[in-house]
Design brief:
Blueprint (H helix, E strand, L loop, with lengths): L7 H11 L3 E5 H14 L6 E7 L6 H9 L3 E4 L2 H9 L7 E3 L6 H10 L3 E4 L2 H14 L3 E8 L21 E2 L3 H13 L3 E7 L9 H22 L5 E3 L17 H19 L5 E4 L3 H4 L3 E12 L4 E5 L8 H5 L5 E3 L9 E6 L8 E8 L7 E4 L20 E6 L2 E6 L4 H5 L5
Parallel strand pairs: 1-17, 2-3, 2-10, 3-4, 4-5, 5-6, 6-7, 6-8, 8-9, 9-10, 12-14
Antiparallel strand pairs: 1-11, 11-12, 11-16, 13-16, 14-15, 17-18
Helix pairs in contact: 2-9, 5-6, 8-9
The structure holds ligand LLP.
The site of ligand LLP has 21 residues, from α10 and α11.
Length: 421
């Protein structure tokens, strides 16, 4: 499928008015995907919630759009929760994740109201119980288990192998049982169920089918053998997008209806009483609705390579350097010219690994040309740094023919505000 992108004249206008590098999100596309999720992740048998995984990309405008589209939120830090609260998201729509929530983060979340805490380990549960008792405040509790299902993704992205730092291995049943008992003995806490997440950029629906089988088998045992009621099940995120033509992810509706059908089947067959099912897409909402627009600068030839350097790089997109992630790009200035050259599209950071695209197909490209990199919307801005003291780019939302800045470009002065003399 050819990749769609905003009209070149709109991109030029954004570059002229906002400068480059600039991150551009097609807000209509963002909302469209959110609607595909809420529209197809539905069942007559149980309640469903789609939680946007804020870590993929978060700012107030993004949170407001997701809130308006009826999504709930997965947040992993006090900072993410602070941003969500600032956008008007109430505690009951926030699911607080993370493997090492600090006492302060936990306390602040309790102060916000009753939401969900996804407890990652025993020590954390102790902290949560202490906080609930001290503050006499209610909270819903979900325990993150590690089902040991390994999805085929890059090693750094997989989270559910046996030795993962996340969640409690599903075969440590005594530990899980003790945790449920401890939560239930605390009058302020309400144990709701389990969470699992098997990786990211998962292209095969079969991986989710395997996760569902393992999770329902577990829930069944917990209910039958321990007599514990499990009301809620959260299957995590990980739905893939297309970065290059090599990636052929299934459509959102297909993944959602398959997950729903499999869960309905398990619930009926095992006579379970699951009342709420959740998923947590991040990348598949923010990823391919986002682009980075750069300006080409100097070029350089070696014996075997032609380099084009752009005015950003690993500081605004660490993914190629960190995961060998692949992207596609186009020359917006020469949009009608044939892409018959191969360039190494490199960033301006002081690091040999700062190559955004090793073999970028482009027409002959000149200094000053605008280069658009596709599908940078997830884990680009959210993992951005000030390496080499590069200010973070501006972020712009487009809708139809109009656009608005949702995060302004960082300035040198912004970066200096933290220095204490
Ligand atoms: N839920 C949990 C518990 C997660 O750990 C994650 C991602 C998600 C949901 C959302 O997954 P998604 O739908 O976005 O795949 N920085 C890496 C990705 C790390 C993903 C971490 N957890 C990257 O740039 O590829």
């Amino acid at each position: 499928m050819p990749l769609t992108y905003p009209r070149p004249s709109l991109l030029r206008e954004i570059a002229d008015n906002c400068g480059t590098p600039v991150m551009i999100y097609d807000e209509d596309a963002l909302r469209q995907t959110m609607r595909e999720y809420t529209g197809s992740f539905k069942s007559e048998m149980f309640e469903t919630s789609v939680l946007y995984a804020s870590k993929a990309f978060l700012c107030k405008a993004m949170a407001k759009a997701a809130l308006e589209e009826g999504l709930h939120f997965d947040a992993v830090s006090g900072g993410e929760i602070y941003c969500l609260a600032g956008a008007g998201v109430p505690a009951e729509k926030i699911h607080f994740h993370g493997n090492n929530k600090t006492p302060r983060e936990i306390e602040e979340f309790f102060r916000m109201g009753r939401g969900h805490i996804i407890v990652d380990n025993c020590d954390e549960l102790t902290l949560v119980i202490e906080t609930a008792e001290r503050m006499a405040s209610p909270m819903d509790i979900i325990i993150r288990v590690n089902p040991g299902v390994e999805a085929h993704t890059h090693e750094y992205i997989a989270t559910a192998t046996k030795d993962s730092k996340f969640g409690i291995s599903i075969d440590r049943e005594d530990e899980i049982r003790r945790m449920i008992e401890a939560a239930e003995n605390c009058p302020h806490l309400s144990f709701k169920g389990f969470h699992s997440h098997i990786g990211s950029q998962i292209l095969e629906v079969e991986a989710f089918a395997a996760e569902i089988r393992v999770m329902f088998d577990f829930v069944d045992r917990v209910q039958q053998q321990w007599g514990v009621e499990v009301e809620e099940l959260d299957l995590g995120g990980g739905f893939a997008i297309s970065y290059t033509e090599k990636d052929n992810p299934p459509a959102t509706e297909e993944v959602c209806s398959r997950i729903i059908a499999l869960c309905e089947e398990e619930i009926t067959r095992r006579k379970l009483d699951i009342r709420r099912l959740m998923i947590e897409p991040g990348r598949s909402i923010a990823g391919d609705a986002g682009y980075t627009l750069y300006t080409a600068g100097c070029r350089k030839m070696t014996d075997s390579k032609s380099f084009i350097f752009v005015d950003g790089g690993m500081a605004d997109n660490i993914r190629p350097a960190l995961y060998n992630a692949e992207y596609t790009c186009r020359n917006i200035t020469r949009d009608n010219a044939k892409a018959d050259r191969t360039y190494a599209l490199a960033g301006k950071c002081c690091e040999s690994g700062d190559i955004l695209i090793k073999e970028a197909r482009l027409p002959e490209t000149f200094p000053g040309d605008l280069i658009l990199v596709h599908s940078t919307g997830a884990y680009g801005y959210s993992m951005a740094s000030n390496y080499n003291r590069l200010p973070r780019p501006a972020v712009v939302f487009t809708s139809g023919e109009s656009y608005r800045t949702v995060i302004r470009r960082e300035t040198y002065e912004d970066m200096m505000t933290l220095d204490v003399e």
